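Here is the promised in-class demo. Please do not try to memorize the tokens; focus on the logic of going from shape to residues.
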């Protein structure tokens, strides 16, 4: 996974500029560049954090409501990486909503 600083990379901007050119062939003629639509890495990181926090609250409310009606199942998952000598524990929640 790459860091958010990828948005400042000249190669990334070149790909976005090429996508904009392709879009012009199929849509209205617009004079924009990647610099007009790509925010800095800190802005992107902050927006993602804000969006994730919002979605987390919405999901929490849905899970709590499902748990009230016995509609939640949590499955643990344990695995280990023998090469790096670490163990991990995860959990998957499946839920059924009232509607």
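The designed amino acids, position by position:
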């Amino acid at each position: 996974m790459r860091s958010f600083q990828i948005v400042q990379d000249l190669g990334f901007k070149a790909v976005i500029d090429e996508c904009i050119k392709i879009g012009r062939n199929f849509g209205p003629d617009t004079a924009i560049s990647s610099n007009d639509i790509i925010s800095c890495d800190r802005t992107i990181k902050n927006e993602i954090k804000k969006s994730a926090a919002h979605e987390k609250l919405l999901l929490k409310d849905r899970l709590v409501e499902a748990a009230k009606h016995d509609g939640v199942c949590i499955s643990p998952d344990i695995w280990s990486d023998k090469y790096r000598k670490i163990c991990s524990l995860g959990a998957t929640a499946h839920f059924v909503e009232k509607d």
